[in-house]
Structure formats: C-alpha cells, structure tokens
C-alpha cells in the first residue's frame, strides 16, 4: 500500500476513534505478538491515526504527537530497542540463508538507521572472517536443496550442467555474488567449505 494511504476497515468493523490510551493498547497488543523497530511501530500506528481521521474527523497531527510520545516512552523503558531488534532480525535472516545484501535491505525497510544496521551486520556468524555470505549461501542451498544438497545428483553431464546453472542463478537471485554461488554449488560437500 502506498505511503499515506489507509487500508479500508474490514467489512463490518467500525474504525475506532484514536486516543492516547487506544494507541497504547494497540501498540502493546502488537508488541506482544511481534518484535518491531520503532519506525515500523510508528508506521503501523500512523495508519490507525489516518483511518480514524478519515472516519471521525480527528486531527492527524495530534495523533502523530501521541505516537511520538508513546514511542519515546517505550524506548526509554526498553520495550522498544532498535539495536537489539536489528541483531535478532539479522541473525534470523542469516539462519534462513539470507545474503548480507538482502539482510541489509530488509533491515533498512524496517526503518532502522545505518549505524544500527552496520552493528547488526558485524554480529553475524562469520562476519569477523568475512564468511557471513558463505554460511548463509550454504544454509540457503540446504533449504532449497541446491548443488551438493540435491537428492538426484547422479544425472548425465548435460542435465547436471543445466541444473548447476539454475542453482547458481537461484543463489544469485537471493543476493549472493557469483563467486560465492559457484563455490557452494560446485562443492561436493558444501558444509565442508566452512571447516576448510
């Protein structure tokens, strides 16, 4: 949905009038279910403020002030911690096989500052040795059953070459550089690459 536009309320649901108490309850309810960055929570609450302004004629500027005060209070109390959120999100994305490039993009999309993104990227497995992408590429290949993780590896040379090219392309689309993709796909034992 474009910035500034609000989603229509679900059929049969009335849009509630926004108050500081309502925003507090909505934010706590969201944070009970999901970890969030302060920018992401701000975006979520602003959508509710805009829907209320459209339905009830409330002042969006007043709602934005309430949101800023609420987020400042949550940051002071530690309920919101962008640095911790960035580290947690980056580790989870790496475990799933996300490339460092893709992880950076996703963290920035969540509204995190560059300093927080850089700190989180420095905490990733293999970051100190420069092997963060290699570990993530191996995890991605294992999850997608590419290269050495493919169950039907005993095919003829033409089929193997075609699959190899497709596997390298899949890693490239996931954000891995060509050298890393070739290294992982061409290895007979991809997990042995980290031990070498």
Task: Outline the structure in words.
- The protein is an all-alpha fold and 196 residues long.
- The protein has 2 domains: 61 residues; 113 residues, no CATH class.
- It is built from 10 helices and no strands.
- α4 packs antiparallel against α5 and α4 packs across α6.
- The protein is elongated and about 70 Å long.
- The chain starts with 19 loop residues before the first helix and ends with a helix.
**What is the number of E strands?**
0
Number of helices: 10
Can you summarize the main beta sheet? none
Low-confidence stretches: none
Q: Report the structural category.
A: mainly alpha
Rg calc: 22 Å
Give the H and E element order. Answer: HHHHHHHHHH
Give the strand content: under 5%
Give the assembly state of these chains: single chain
Average pLDDT figure:
88
N- and C-termini, Cα separation: 46 Å
Q: What is the domain total for the residues?
A: 2
Helix-residue proportion:
55-70%
What would the principal axes of the Cα set say about the shape? elongated
Secondary-structure topology with pairs:
Layout: H1 20-33, H2 38-56, H3 60-77, H4 82-95, H5 100-109, H6 114-122, H7 132-144, H8 157-173, H9 178-186, H10 192-195
């Amino acid at each position: 949905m474009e910035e500034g536009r609000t989603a229509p309320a679900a059929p049969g649901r009335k849009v509630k009038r926004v108050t500081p108490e309502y925003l507090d309850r909505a934010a706590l309810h969201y944070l009970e279910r999901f970890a969030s960055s302060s920018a992401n929570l701000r975006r979520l609450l602003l959508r509710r403020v805009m829907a209320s302004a459209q339905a009830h004629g409330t002042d969006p500027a007043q709602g934005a002030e309430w949101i800023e005060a609420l987020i400042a209070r949550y940051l002071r109390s530690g309920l919101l911690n962008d640095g911790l959120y960035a580290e947690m999100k980056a580790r989870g994305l790496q475990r799933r096989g996300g490339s460092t490039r893709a992880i950076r993009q996703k963290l920035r999309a969540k509204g995190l500052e560059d300093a927080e993104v850089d700190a989180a990227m420095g905490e990733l497995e293999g970051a100190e040795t420069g092997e963060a992408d290699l570990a993530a590429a191996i995890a991605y290949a294992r999850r997608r059953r590419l290269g050495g993780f493919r169950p039907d590896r005993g095919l003829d040379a033409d089929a193997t070459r075609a699959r190899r090219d497709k596997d390298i392309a899949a890693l490239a689309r996931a954000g891995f550089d060509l050298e890393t993709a070739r290294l992982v796909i061409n290895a007979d034992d991809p997990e042995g690459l980290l031990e070498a």
